[in-house]
């Protein structure tokens, strides 16, 4: 008897629906830490495991000098930060806004980023 190949443990997908919210690669999400601080990230990848649980891979966004904490999220006030390689449960994320996957420029971009004083 010949066995077929085993199904993959996870599969990467371009979008998922979780708790009546559609998430897509490129979307901006917020993540709260244990002390109530809010951090923003861009979804770099979405995956579904063999049980149907959804997870994501994030690229953290770093606020620039123009960022005002009292205002809502504005994409132009952030630059790309650290890229994670860890799958996070999508439950820890809250959708903030839609954004194309290439909206944020890489840190090695030819565009000038002025230093904070």
TrEMBL record:
The keyword Metal-binding applies. The keyword DNA damage does not apply. Keywords: Metal-binding, Nucleus, Zinc, Zinc-finger. One of its GO terms (molecular function) is zinc ion binding. It is found in: Nucleus. Transmembrane segments: none annotated. One of its GO terms (cellular component) is nucleus. InterPro entries: GATAD1. Coiled coil: none annotated. It comes from the Eukaryota. GO terms for biological process: chromatin organization. PANTHER family: GATA ZINC FINGER DOMAIN-CONTAINING, GATA ZINC FINGER DOMAIN-CONTAINING PROTEIN 1. This is GATA zinc finger domain-containing protein 1. It comes from Calicophoron daubneyi (Rumen fluke).
